[in-house]
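sry for the spam today, last one i promise. struct tokens for design, 486 residues
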């Protein structure tokens, strides 16, 4: 890993991206604020909801797939660091893939995959939030089949609330993110403290940490691969930070440090929690629970009445995930409609609030359909299915970004930028694509991802036909760097 100054003049593509009539964004994000933003973006629903699911795949050795997922995420994160310091526009994967390949349809599919991952992630968080609400209201009652309609109603109501907040025009500031990050970290710190408290009292069994159990007749390799693909959901979020590059003080110096440090901090926290969770709570109980970390708190410190408090902390921890993801999805829908690659009705903006009402409404409807269809078809597998689909979509995007890094090595720019060792993007592409194969992904994830991408493809075809037949113009991105601009 090294920083490589590039002195050659920019090519036409780079000049096109840098020619912008809009004023430059204010560089107000310091290294500490950026670090907290990244940590807060990665922490959240994944570790709170999927700890038990990962343990269900491999038993007490759940820390193994988490470490592998962390390593894969770190490799891809370094590729993002190279891209964001080389092209410090407020953009992301769509821009990098477009600059590397110049295929507008591929750019569209990557953008819609990122958009879809935001909707699946928000749906996962909304369902998990609803289960924590039920736990907070009645800590002794386990949300079973009888409570499922109520939990679904709460999830849908929360999605409506998020849509109303987005319509009102609330812009999430970095300082607000810091507050929510501290709430998230408080919940995870509480789990770690309770875990060590149980260990100190001799009420935890560390022998379970090396116990390997698989479902059915899966081999060790197959079980770990499947669990890694699921655990990867806990590591995503760092890719959102590329949208902060233009507003970061000295991004070439500070962005690599903040991203590597932030991902490392969360990796350590996740490994600690995966070890302590199975040591404190029997694997079967942890796997069957819809709120696994709450089980750790209840079992590890039964004499301390903090389970209700923790349930509310969990609610706040995942609420911001829903808001950020739905804001991102609605913005991308608006951006693609404005670029002319999605139907024009998605460009609708409220006159008074200047918020993209059409994108907000459309993304909320998609989230509704996901919650209802997946909830009642897969029942107890809802969270793992939606979380796994989020990971599948982003792994495909990460694989393409790693390839884009290698392709764009031929593009020299007149800015000093980070340069990751060449072998790492190669490893990142291979491992990312390996984790989206049928070996690692269940069929349900392909069905959900395919359904969402199918909707995007249908909208693209409708737009292409309209542009060709009525407007006599090509369907293409005119300024892909504007898709990520706030």
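last one done:
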């Amino acid at each position: 890993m090294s920083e490589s100054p590039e002195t050659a003049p920019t090519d036409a593509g780079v000049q096109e991206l840098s020619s912008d009539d809009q004023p430059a964004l204010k560089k107000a994000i310091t290294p500490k604020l950026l670090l907290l933003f990244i940590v807060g973006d990665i922490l959240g629903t994944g570790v709170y909801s999927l700890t038990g699911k990962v343990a269900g795949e491999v038993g007490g050795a759940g820390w193994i797939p988490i470490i592998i997922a962390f390593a894969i995420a770190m490799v891809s994160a370094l590729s993002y660091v190279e891209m964001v310091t080389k092209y410090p526009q407020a953009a992301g994967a769509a821009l990098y893939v477009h600059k590397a390949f110049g295929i507008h349809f591929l750019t569209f599919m990557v953008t819609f995959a990122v958009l879809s991952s935001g909707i699946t992630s928000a749906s996962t968080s909304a369902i998990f939030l609803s289960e924590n609400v039920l736990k907070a209201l009645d800590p002794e009652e386990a949300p079973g089949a009888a409570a499922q309609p109520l939990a679904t109603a709460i999830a849908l109501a929360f999605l409506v609330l998020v849509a109303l907040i987005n319509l009102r025009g609330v812009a999430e500031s970095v300082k607000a993110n810091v507050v929510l990050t501290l709430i998230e970290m408080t919940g995870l710190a509480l789990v770690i403290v309770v875990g060590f408290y149980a260990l100190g009292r001799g009420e935890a069994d560390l022998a379970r940490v090396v116990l390997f159990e698989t479902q059915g007749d899966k081999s060790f390799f197959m079980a770990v691969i499947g669990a890694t693909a699921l655990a990867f959901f806990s590591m995503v979020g760092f890719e959102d930070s590329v949208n902060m590059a233009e507003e970061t003080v000295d991004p070439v110096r500070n962005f690599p440090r903040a991203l590597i440090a932030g991902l490392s901090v969360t990796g350590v926290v996740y490994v600690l929690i995966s070890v302590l969770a199975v040591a404190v709570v029997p694997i079967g109980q942890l796997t069957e629970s819809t709120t696994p970390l709450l089980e750790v708190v209840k079992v590890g410190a039964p004499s301390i009445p903090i389970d209700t408090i923790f349930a509310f902390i969990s609610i706040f921890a995942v609420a911001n995930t829903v808001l950020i993801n739905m804001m991102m999805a609605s913005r991308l829908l608006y951006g693609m409609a404005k670029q002319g690659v999605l139907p024009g009705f998605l460009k609708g903006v409220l006159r008074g609030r200047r918020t993209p009402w059409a994108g907000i409404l459309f993304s909320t409807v998609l989230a509704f359909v996901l919650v209802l269809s997946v909830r009642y078809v897969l029942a107890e597998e809802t969270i793992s299915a939606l979380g796994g689909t989020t990971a599948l979509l982003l792994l495909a995007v990460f694989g393409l970004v790693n390839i884009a890094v290698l392709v764009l090595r031929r593009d020299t720019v007149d800015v000093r930028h980070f340069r990751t060792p060449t072998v790492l993007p190669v490893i990142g592409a291979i491992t990312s694509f390996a984790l989206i194969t049928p070996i690692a992904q269940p069929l349900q994830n392909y069905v959900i991802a395919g359904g969402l991408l199918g909707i995007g493809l249908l909208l693209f075809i409708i737009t292409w036909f309209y542009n060709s037949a009525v407007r006599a113009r090509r369907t293409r991105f005119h300024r892909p760097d504007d898709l990520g601009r706030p």
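Residues 1-25 have pLDDT under 50 and may be disordered. ok im logging off now
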